[in-house]
Amino acid sequence: MATLGLLIVFPFLMAYAAANDLLTMLIPNRISLALTAAFAALAATGILSPAEIGAHLGAGALVLALTFGLFASGVIGGGDAKLAAATALWLGFDQLLDYAVVSSMIGGALTLALLAARSQPLPFTVARLPFAAHLHDRKTGIPYGIALAAGALIVLPDTLLWSRALAA
To answer: Residues in domain Prepilin type IV endopeptidase peptidase (predicted)?
Structure first.
């Protein structure tokens, strides 16, 4: 039952990260830290072998190294980098490529949709909402945390971690 409770934490935190990124264009460190702590608690339940825990840690470290490089190059935000790494910790290597592909496809669609929306004037009733006006500004980036969260939620049911937790 504890594993099922912890698996509810992951989708909740991903949805919270996406909503926060949409509304503020920021993903607070506390979300990535909470994902990491929840994974540690889940690993402590014995659902994964020590070797599997090591592989999940390796997936998180690999994604952190890659996304840190992207952050240092100015391609993505720091919150996106940390969220992707914390997510990889949960997904492990078995779904890491699927996560990258799905998140990229969603991110591309989100980018195109925002660029199209930014080419049109905002309706007055929507323009009064501070987050909508900020999101509509062409100088504002893309809230890529939405794509990262959606990609994670799409691939999560196919992970070894998810199937073991449901079987427990």
So the answer is: 8-111
Report d(CA 24, CA 42) in Å as an integer. Answer: 30
CB atoms within 10 A of CB 54: 11
Q: Nearest 5°: phi and psi at 114?
A: -70, -40
Is the pLDDT reported for residue 139 higher than 90? no
Mean pLDDT across the chain, nearest whole number? Answer: 92
DSSP string, 77-106: -HHHHHHHHHHHHHH-GGGHHHHHHHHHHH
142: left (phi over 0), alpha (psi -120 to 50) or beta: beta
- Written as six digits, the tokens of 82 are 């940390």
* Domain extents in the chain: 2-167
